Amino acid sequence: MRKIRWGVLSTARIGLQKVIPAMQQGRHCDIFAIASRNLESANKAAAQLGIPKVYGAYEELLNDPEAEAVYNPLPNHLHVPWSIKAIEAGKHVLIEKPIATSVSELQQLMNAAKAHPHLKVMEAFMYRLHPQWLKARELAQSGNIGEARTIHSFISFFNNDPQNVRNKPEMGGGALFDIGCYSISIPRFIFGAEPKRVCAHIDFDLNFHIDRTISGIIDFGHRTSDFTCSMQLVRHQSATIFGTEGQIEIAAPLNPPFDQPTKIFLQRNGTTEEIPIEVCNQFTLQGDAFSLAILNDAPVPIPLEDSLANMKVIDALFESAWKNSWVTIDQTQIKKFKLNRNLMEHIMKSFIRVLIVSISLTTIIFAQGLPVASPENVGLSSDRLKRLESVMLQYVEKK
């Protein structure tokens, strides 16, 4: 069977270090082109990875008739717009997670995909193709730990680089988008069900204006999942599925080794069984699975409807943290919250300005004879004012 001709949008690190080398090892992937807005970067990446064709603009790659499929690892805020452009150019698209930054944005992508039903579009949740997770789901759903009732996951690393896209809110940065999306997807995959409501707490970084740590509870009715994800804690990954008679531990849930076997642990009846998992690269499996869906005109492993369900939970978690309460995962409620965005923004900006006026009046009273106080001479420079507004608007801007 022939290989699909792939082009890559951008020289993002995940592509250069993990995804492209893995896809080059696949049976059905031919990475023949890479594009960057910086031609020098594209040339360097192409030389490093042995990619024959280089473009200094994304549009040039999309206009190449040889390109059948595109891998999009651009910053989060560019996932949807450039994927829509790729679809309109007649390309199949594999999009890095998170596929979008809101339900409404994802719906735009889905509308574009529906207008071109012959094209395949998928979110790159590579972990779902790894045999350790297929085995874990099989064990959980077949009664090996009794009734699977709760899942706990913890994903963290430390990144305080101000230039990193993960720390830029305008580019879709933050822990929930970057790694929290996994902690939502995992229980949905294992339980084979959709949650009813969520509750979340966010630790907000006042310098970067992003959610640096989020902890949440996802309620599936008679089953639950709880998680913590952070971009400013020591590096750690773990996931455990708890049942009425045992538990399943996945020691390396997202980054299992690709050059040696991995294992999962099944604990029951006071004993622990190590279950070996064959050597594989989840990114190679992902690329081949998507390519085969194209070649066979078959459904992709992760349909856009699944991505939409995941995005609804992400939106609800942001809303929960903002409201400090449980939020039901209901599309009507999510839309209602979004429609009130401008009103909430106006209220919060008004609050900030009232606060500034109050500080100014207080300063005048206790400093008679001084010039009328301004935000600057009471310690609120224009930069600090903008930061205050950004802090107040953090969760609304996520919507």
Give a brief description:
By secondary structure, this protein is of the alpha/beta class.
How would you describe what is shown here?
The protein is α/β, with parallel strands linked by helices. It has 3 domains: 4-125, NAD(P)-binding Rossmann-like Domain (Rossmann fold), CATH 3.40.50; 127-280 and 303-330, Dihydrodipicolinate Reductase, domain 2 (2-Layer Sandwich); 340-398, no CATH class. It has 13 helices and 15 strands. The chain has helices spanning 13-24, 39-49, 58-62, 79-88, 103-114, 131-141, 175-191, 282-295, 304-323, 331-339, 341-365, 382-392, 394-398, and strands at 4-9, 29-35, 53-55, 69-72, 92-95, 121-123, 148-158, 197-205, 210-219, 224-230, 232-243, 246-250, 262-268, 271-277, 327-328. Strands 14-13-12-11-7-10-9-8-15 form a 9-stranded mixed β-sheet. The chain has a 6-stranded parallel β-sheet with strand order 3-2-1-4-5-6, sandwiched between helices. Helix 2 (39-49) links the parallel strand 2 (29-35) and strand 3. Helix 1 crosses helix 8, helix 5 runs antiparallel to helix 9 (304-323) and helix 7 (175-191) packs across helix 9.
Q: What CATH architecture of the largest domain do you see?
A: 2-Layer Sandwich
Number of helices: 13
Task: Provide the β-strand percentage band.
Answer: 15-25%
- End-to-end Cα distance, whole Å, is 44 Å
Low-confidence stretches: 331-351, 370-382, 384-388, 394-399
- How is the biggest beta sheet arranged? 9 strands, mixed
Order of helices and strands: EHEHEHEHEHEHEHEEEEEEEHHEHHHH
How many domains? 3
Kindly provide the radius of gyration, computed on alpha-carbon positions and rounded to a whole number of angstroms: 23 Å
- How many β strands by DSSP? 15
The CATH topology name of the largest domain reads Dihydrodipicolinate Reductase, domain 2
- The CATH superfamily label of the largest domain reads Dihydrodipicolinate Reductase, domain 2
User: Averaged pLDDT, please?
Assistant: 88
Strand order of the largest sheet: 14-13-12-11-7-10-9-8-15
Estimate percent helicity: 40-55%
